[in-house]
Amino acid sequence: MTKQLTKSERLVASTRGVAARRGKGDRAYGKVADRDIAAPPAEQRGMFSEKPIAVRTEKGQVVGRAFRRQPYFVTLAKLPADRTQPKGRRLISAEQFKAMRFYRAAWEGSQSSQMRCALDVSVRGIGMSRNDRETIPPGYWEAQRLKDCEKPFGAALRETMRAIILLDQSFAQVAMMRWGSRDRQRIITGTGKQKPRIVNEVVPISKNHSEMVKQEFLEGLDHLVRAAGRHFAIE
Fold it and tell me: Where is composition skewed (Basic and acidic residues) in this entry (predicted)?
């Protein structure tokens, strides 16, 4: 006589069956396999990590894996300075990349919770008494670093640098916010069994607008490298 399984027992049995069908590497991790993780859309893949990355809590405990969104300047660092030479010099140098990471970290630190900053009384600061250092939250120091990074910028340049480095907007998005946009239809030719299709896009009014934003951004990078470089020298 066949034993009837309860609902909970059937659930456990089905879970074990799924785990058994996976590879050893998947079972070793004990979580969902990479192939089962939803990937970002094709038009946004450049804005995410190439492979799923471990998601951790504040204490470092791994709770899963996912495609993590990466800053837009990470994508810019992979682009060549000259499109006709894909393997030539990169658009962003190592020094500029380091300065942008410092700028981004200072901004993220300045946006931290005021309550948690108030509870953090670890020793920090130079040239101050211990009692004074313990009463200043860490968000204050990050805000000071952010202010130092943006000191060489004017109002317009600061808006451009914040949009690209901190808010992950592309050159085209900044151009459209500044000068407006237009609708464009693009025909994608099909390959194999795929049929040709028409894609509607929103693009800047002029191609020159994106190039103007790009040149403004590269000019701002020179100021940022000098401003952030002072902190590198201190640290």
Answer: 1-10
